[in-house]
């Protein structure tokens, strides 16, 4: 069958070793991953620290960043100097550092023109009684500085229960930490700027503690923010679709496919992750039927037409807002 420029784009994931990572990306998802503790699968990314190569089709062998630069028509002619989104799976066997991310303005000024990092988490699986840290209790910079100085982590950090199916938006300026025993699908701005507040006094691969970034953290924390009490999804499901988050950077939906399901093309491009089940998908303008299953990620480009899904599966999709 002739390859169509309108067909779906399947990026090859990039894996990152992390001291807190595990082996679920191989054991649960069947990805071919390097040895050792692997914490992150960058599934759809054009970030320089993990720029996915297209696996098949007319764009095979090209990096996502190259497609963004040379074939902007695939992305509806959107403006911007970089592909804006990053979709990853996080396998936290151990706790991630307590951290916070800057917004676009702070990152542009202090991080060499980087984007800020707004992110959100869809919990794929969590061990019983797992919690997650979202938010902190200091009212101002001085109070937070003394809590950090004195190591008063229990006073400082807001913990929330974490169960499969929960969803957590993480605004820039939110202190947060994914705890061990958690498997998460993260949708975020295409940024890799993290300020570590506390790392449990762990040592990295080189026998040294990983660097902390206390001053930057104190700068960017949003002291007025209200921490959530739960990640339970309360938005209504309409025709199989639940809007999880809509913000200036992205719109994230959960889509249930039970039998046949059409997702209409009303985006410049769509990132799709299959998080449960299996089936097929066909882009109307291309015609090729693709087998997909839990752990498959793809990009639906502009002009691909409606997406025809068949099977029994759950998807998480993301797009830039209209
Ligand atoms: Zn983070």
Structure commentary:
Helix content is 12%, strand content 40%. By secondary structure, it is mainly β. The strands form six sheets. The chain has a six-stranded antiparallel β-sheet with strand order 2-3-7-14-9-12, with no helix packed on it. Strands 16, 17, 18, 19, 20 and 21 form a six-stranded antiparallel β-sheet that branches. Strand 16 and strand 17 form a beta hairpin. 43% of the residues are buried. Bound molecules: zinc ion. Zinc ion binds next to loops.
Features:
mainly beta; six-stranded antiparallel sheet; 322 residues; 21 strands; 6 helices; globular; binds zinc ion
Structural class, from helix and strand content?
mainly beta
Count of beta strands: 21
Helix-strand pattern: EEHEEEEHEEHEEHHEEEEEHEEEEEE
Describe the largest sheet. Answer: 6 strands, antiparallel
Q: Name the strands of the widest sheet in spatial order.
A: 2-3-7-14-9-12
Uncertain regions: pLDDT < 50 for 5+ in a row? none
């Amino acid at each position: 069958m002739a390859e169509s420029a309108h067909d779906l784009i399947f990026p090859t994931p990039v894996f990152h070793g992390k001291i807190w990572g595990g082996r679920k990306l191989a054991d649960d998802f069947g990805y071919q991953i390097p040895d050792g503790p692997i914490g992150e699968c960058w599934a759809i990314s054009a970030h320089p620290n993990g720029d996915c190569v297209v696996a098949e089709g007319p764009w095979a062998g090209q990096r996502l960043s190259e497609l963004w630069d040379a074939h902007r028509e695939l992305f509806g002619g959107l403006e911007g100097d970089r592909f804006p989104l990053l979709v990853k799976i996080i396998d936290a066997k151990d706790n991630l550092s307590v951290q916070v991310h800057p917004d676009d303005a702070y990152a542009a000024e202090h991080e060499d023109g980087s984007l800020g990092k707004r992110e959100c988490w869809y919990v794929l699986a969590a061990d019983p009684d797992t919690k997650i840290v979202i938010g902190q209790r200091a009212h101002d910079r001085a109070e937070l500085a003394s809590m950090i100085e004195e190591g008063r982590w229990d006073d400082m950090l807001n913990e929330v229960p974490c169960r499969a199916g929960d969803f957590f938006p993480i605004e820039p300026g939110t202190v947060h930490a994914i705890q061990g025993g958690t498997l998460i699908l993260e949708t975020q701005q295409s940024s890799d700027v993290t300020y570590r507040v506390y790392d449990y006094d762990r040592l990295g691969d080189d026998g040294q503690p990983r660097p902390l970034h206390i001053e930057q953290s104190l700068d960017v924390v949003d002291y007025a923010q209200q921490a959530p009490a739960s990640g339970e999804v309360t938005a209504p499901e309409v025709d199989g679709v639940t809007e999880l988050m809509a913000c200036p950077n992205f719109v994230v939906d959960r889509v249930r496919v039970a039998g046949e399901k059409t997702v209409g093309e009303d985006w410049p491009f769509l990132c799709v992750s299959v998080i449960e089940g299996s089936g097929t998908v066909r882009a109307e303008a291309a015609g090729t039927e693709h087998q997909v299953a839990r752990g498959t990620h793809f990009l639906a480009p502009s002009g691909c037409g409606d997406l025809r899904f068949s099977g029994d599966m759950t998807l998480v999709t993301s797009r830039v807002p209209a």
